[in-house]
Amino acid sequence: MHVTHVVGARPNFMKVAPLMRALSRRDGISQRLVHTGQHYDTTLSDVFFADLELPQPDVFLEVGSLPHGAQTAAVLHKFEELLLTGPKTDFVIVVGDVNSSLAASLAAAKLRVPVAHVEAGLRSYDREMPEELNRVCIDHLSDVLLTPSADADANLAREGLPASRIHCVGNVMIDTLDRELPRARRSGILETLGVVQKEYSVLTLHRPSNVDDAPTLRRLISALGPLTEERPMIFPVHPRTRKRLADFGLVLPRGLRLVEPMGYLDFLRLTDGSALVLTDSGGLQEETTVLGIPCLTLRENTERPITVEVGTNTVVGLSEEKIVTEGRRALSGEGKRGGVPPLWDGHAAERIADVLLASAAR
Ligand code: UD1
User: Fold this and answer.
1) What pLDDT, on a 0 to 100 scale, did the predictor assign at position 361?
2) Residue 206 catalytic?
3) Which atom belonging to ligand 1 lies closest to the Cα atom of 11?
4) Residue 225, pLDDT score
5) How far apart are CA 265 and CA 53, in angstroms?
6) Cβ–ligand 1 contact at 237 (below 6 Å)
7) 261 CA distance to ligand 1 middle (Å)
């Protein structure tokens, strides 16, 4: 069986790493890794290959940053060409909900190459999010739907997708977290930043809905102000957000410390040592749940409700009152506690390997 993995953007790398490792331990499987080039900066891409000991990509499509339609079209065009001219592939595996995953699944589905979607079934039911449109399309193009939790299975069933395609396998990102946590804990990032375990918070922000509109970003930054007076807030800034902060000329509170985006190990250490995480990222809602760190999601909804029901996540939107109340609670050690969702146990990739081999044998 020949498998083609497609990655493009930062949140993809930690999902594909355990999968490639699990498949390499099985007999009769050859694999190649295709990087679309959606993310190309060292801090968003290369550092993850080093930290996660990922093999270098076999193919680079070099699409770069473009508007959504053009970026998706560029991957569609180049990946289709690769499938038509390259070695025959039995499965294309896409992860998550980024534009690269949508384009690769569409190219493969049209050529009738089976598609497996890792992290299938997540829904925010908010079509303002580009990722939501990607998720719906990718799931409906896929032959094998590999979900992280039962709520995702239910979403897929509601959309009429057959049960025979749906496999609840757990969360591959947690496979990576479990494997890398001991190494991450040896990182010296807290010392480098001069912060003390449990005496700081972490902020990440990059969703277009939060950062592309000046009044919204101004409101968010001002809502965070009171929390930064109590403890330093470390803010590794995505390039999109850095540009917006500069364009809008926003004045930042003194305790908010902007730093460059970090690699996987340093960022995991930073999260693990924090008292509180504030974020609009999806993956971080899951990682904080497993680490037991209170997380405030700076969005009006989440496609990962299990992190709220079972884990440490609270969806606070952009309400200053909620952000400050919940934030203060967490900073004083009284933040939300929770458990770990079923199958988030470090073995999701092995279950995916079983499903793929069984599908190929049919
Ligand atoms: C993408 C994903 C998002 C994911 C995020 C993680 C989609 C629709 N969005 O958003 O789901 O959470 O990645 O980071 O696929 N840029 C750089 N260097 C890079 C890449 C991008 O400076 O290596 C800048 C460019 O100005 C670019 C902007 O960031 O225009 C946005 O990049 P893009 O890949 O379009 O989307 P993200 O916001 O990163």
Assistant:
1) 82
2) yes
3) 6
4) 94
5) 11
6) no
7) 13
Catalytic one of 35, 167, 206, 238: 206
Ligand 1 contact, 342 CB (< 6 A): no
The stretches in the chain having pLDDT less than 70 are none
pLDDT at 362: 80
Q: What is the pTM of this model?
A: 0.97
Identify the pLDDT of residue 4: 98
- Read off φ and ψ for residue 345, nearest 5 degrees: -120, 10
Cβ(317) – ligand 1 distance below 6 Å = no
